[in-house]
């Protein structure tokens, strides 16, 4: 660490709490994350369900009705779950900001001491500590941002609209759930099962490959990974359905 930092060379960018330029990041990253997760969950859950009820020797009419009911319930569950989790995350962040702002207003000396200790622990020399603390405490908003990062570990960020997140998750989950059900509306039971598993396998591989837009991993490896998970879950669902069907009937 360079010591003897002057006031001219020390600026807030070096302290680590200012916003950074995110232009290099994928602009639709969060939306794609919700879509990929929704599709994945919808596909996996429905494929396992279909495999199970097929193995249990349920009639085609019952399979379609039960699968559509499961898809509808899952859509609502995923959508509302995403909405509530996003809303709660934003509310928690806002609550912590309000609490920290109140402490800065009512206990400024204690906040200064906390900031001094934080930078001592980072290895700053005393003159550097005083320089940083003086700079921070000269602006309450600047001090608030620093305390949020250094004391609470919360990074300033833009939170997505909970309604938008819920809709994205719900719709993508619904699409993922409906795809494996469609063959049962047009084909016989045996043909529908084969077609359903084939459609699901293709969709799982495509979803896994598609998420590499975010992860920047090898697309075919990511696709095979998601396909493998789908096959494992389907086999488990089929096995459980077969056992329960044998016991029930």
Primary descriptors:
manganese ion transmembrane transporter activity; 249 residues; mainly alpha; single chain
Question: What can you see in these coordinates?
Answer:
- This protein is mainly alpha-helical and 249 residues long.
- It has one domain.
- The chain contains nine helices and no strands.
- The protein starts with 28 loop residues before the first helix and ends with a helix.
- This is VIT family protein.
Describe the secondary-structure layout.
Blueprint: H1 29-55, H2 60-106, H3 108-121, H4 126-137, H5 140-150, H6 162-178, H7 189-210, H8 212-215, H9 219-248
Helix pairs in contact: 1-2, 1-6, 1-7, 1-9, 2-3, 2-5, 2-6, 3-4, 7-9
Morphology call: elongated
Q: Low-confidence parts, pLDDT < 50 over ≥5 residues? A: 1-27
> What order do the helices and strands follow?
HHHHHHHHH
> How big is the Rg?
26 Å
Strand content: under 5%
Number of domain modules: 1
GO cellular component, one term: endomembrane system
GO molecular function, one term: manganese ion transmembrane transporter activity
Subcellular location: Endomembrane system
Main location: membrane
């Amino acid at each position: 660490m360079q010591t003897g930092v002057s006031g001219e060379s020390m600026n807030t960018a070096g302290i680590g709490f200012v916003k950074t330029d995110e232009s290099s990041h994928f602009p639709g990253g969060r939306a794609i994350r919700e879509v990929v997760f929704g599709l994945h969950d919808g596909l996996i859950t429905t494929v396992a369900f279909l495999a199970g009820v097929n193995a249990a020797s349920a009639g085609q009419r019952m399979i379609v009705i039960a699968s559509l009911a499961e898809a509808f319930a899952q859509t609502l569950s995923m959508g509302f779950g995403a909405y509530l989790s996003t809303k709660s995350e934003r509310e928690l962040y806002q609550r912590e900001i309000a609490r920290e702002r109140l402490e800065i207003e009512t206990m400024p000396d204690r906040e200064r001491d906390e900031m001094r200790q934080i930078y001592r622990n980072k290895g700053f020399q005393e003159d550097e500590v005083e320089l940083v603390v003086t700079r921070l405490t000269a602006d309450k908003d600047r001090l608030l941002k620093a305390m949020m990062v250094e004391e609470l570990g919360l990074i300033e960020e833009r939170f997505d609209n909970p309604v938008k997140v819920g809709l994205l998750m719900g719709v993508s989950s619904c699409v993922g759930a409906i795809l494996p059900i469609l063959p049962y509306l047009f084909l016989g039971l045996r043909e529908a099962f084969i077609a359903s598993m084939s459609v699901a396998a293709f969709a799982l591989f495509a979803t896994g490959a598609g998420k590499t837009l975010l992860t920047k991993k090898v697309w075919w490896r990511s696709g095979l990974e998601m396909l493998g998970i789908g096959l494992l879950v389907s086999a488990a669902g089929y096995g459980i359905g077969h056992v329960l069907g044998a016991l029930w009937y």
